[in-house]
Amino acid sequence: MSTRPADTAARDAVVVGSGPNGLAAAVRLAQAGHRVTVLEAAATIGGGTRTEELTLPGLLHDVCSAVHPFALASPYLATLPLADHGLVWRWPEIDLAHPLDDGTAGVLVRDLDETCRGLGADGAAWRGVFGPLVDRFDDLAGDVLGPIVRIPDHPVSMARFGLRAGLPATVLARRFRTPQARALFAGSAAHAFRPLSRPVTAAVGVLLTAAGHRHGWPVPEGGSAAITRALASLLTELGGEIVTGRAVRTSADLPRAAITMLDTGPQAAAEILGDRLPARRRRTYRRWRYGPGVFKVDLAVRGGVPWTAEAARRAGTVHVGGTLEQIAASEAAVCRGEMPESPFVLVAQQHLADPTRSVGDVHPVWAYAHVPAHWAGDGERVVLDQLERFAPGLRERVVATAVRSPADHEVDNANYVGGDIAGGANDLRQLVGRPRLTPDPYATGVDGVWLCSASTPPGAGVHGMCGLRAAERALRQVDQTTRRSRRLR
C-alpha cells in the first residue's frame, strides 16, 4: 500500500474515502482494468473498520465496526481472495446472547437446530420464522443487499423475506411467547436505530438473525482492521494505490479522472460538488437526515465480564437492554431525542474468538449505547450502569477505559454526523429512497461522479456492496460511452 503523494493525473479512477465501501469500489474498478487512486483524509485508512490500542498497550480495540455477519454474507467480498491477503475469520462458541434480569438469556448460535432447542417452547416458532430464509440465505443476500427499486433475481425468497421484514419488530415478535426469544429478536432489530413499533423495523432483525444462522457472527483475527488491510493489499496487487492525508472538500481538490467515486454522505457530496450538482439533486442531498448517535466505551477488563447469565460469558456479542418492551421504550425515546436511563447497549467480546487481542488476563471489551444525535451527557456512567445491571461487579474488574462521544465520532469520521454510524436515518422514506427514490441511487447527476457510501443501498455494514453496486454502475456507464463513441467514428 502506497501512502506517498501519487501522480493522480495518470489515474483514470479516483475514490474519495477508504472505508470498506470505498475500498470495495476501488477493487472492483481495478479488476476492470482501471488505474485507481484512493484519497483518504485521515492518516490511517479504513474509516469505521479500524483497530487501535485505545486503553492499554497491546490491547486491541475495534474503533467502530466489530462483529461481521454481513462480511461473510456479502456476495462480493465472498468472491475476493482476502484470505490470501491475511484475513482470517474466528467464531466464538456462542454468537449472540441476550441476558435478562432473572439471570436467563436468549441464545443464538450458528446451528439453527441447537438454537431452537435452547429456546424451548419457542423453538418451533423460531424455525418457522427464520428456517425458510436460512435455507436460501445466499440467494436472498444478493437481492437484499442492493437497491429496493428493482426486480429481484429471486422473487420467491424476497417475498418470504418481505412478509417478515415489512412488519414492525414488535409485531413480528408476537410470534414468540417467551421473554427470552422476544428479547433475542428485539436486540437484533434494534440495530435499525428506529422505534420498533414502526413498519419495516423487523427487517434488520430478520436479516441479522438469518445471517447468523447461515454464517455466524464472526470477527477477524487481529481486529477489524484486518479487513481493511486485506482489501488494501488486494487493491495494491491490482495496481491501485492509496494516498493518506489527502482531504477532498471541494471539486478543486479532485484530480481529473474518468470515474470519481465518493465514499461520503450526501451532504458532504453536495459540498464537494457544489454548483456542478443539478439544483434538484443538490437540494435532495442537503436535506438528507441523520439518525441517532452512539456513545462508545472501550473497556480493559481483568478476567472478562462477570455476566449473571452464564451463556453471555461465552458469547462474542451480547445485547444489553432487557425485555422486548424495555428495548422498544428506550429506542423510541432515543429517536425522540430523549436519553433513556437504561439505553440499549451493544457489547462485543471479540477476545473469546480471537485471544490475540488480549494481554494476559486483561481483555478488550467493546460497547456502545444508542443515544440521541449530538448527545453530550455522561455516557461512560450510563453504559457501565447498564452493564452492571446484568454483570454486577464489572466496575471492580475494569483496568482502563476509553470513551468516544457522538461529537468524537464525527470528528474522527466525517460520515458519522451527530454520532450516526449508520449513514443516515433508517426511516421508511430513506430506506426506499437512499439517498433518493430512483432506480439509479448511485448517480449524482454529475458526469463521471458516483456516490458509494453507506448512505446508498443497501446501507450500513461491512459488506462492500454499496461500493460494488456504485462501481458496477460506473463501469456500465463508461462502457456505454465507449461504445457510443466507437459508433460515431
TrEMBL record:
One Pfam family of this chain: NAD_binding_8
- Report which superkingdom the organism of origin falls in: Bacteria
Per its record, how is this protein called by name? Phytoene desaturase family protein
The organism's taxonomic lineage, starting at the top: Bacteria, Bacillati, Actinomycetota, Actinomycetes, Propionibacteriales
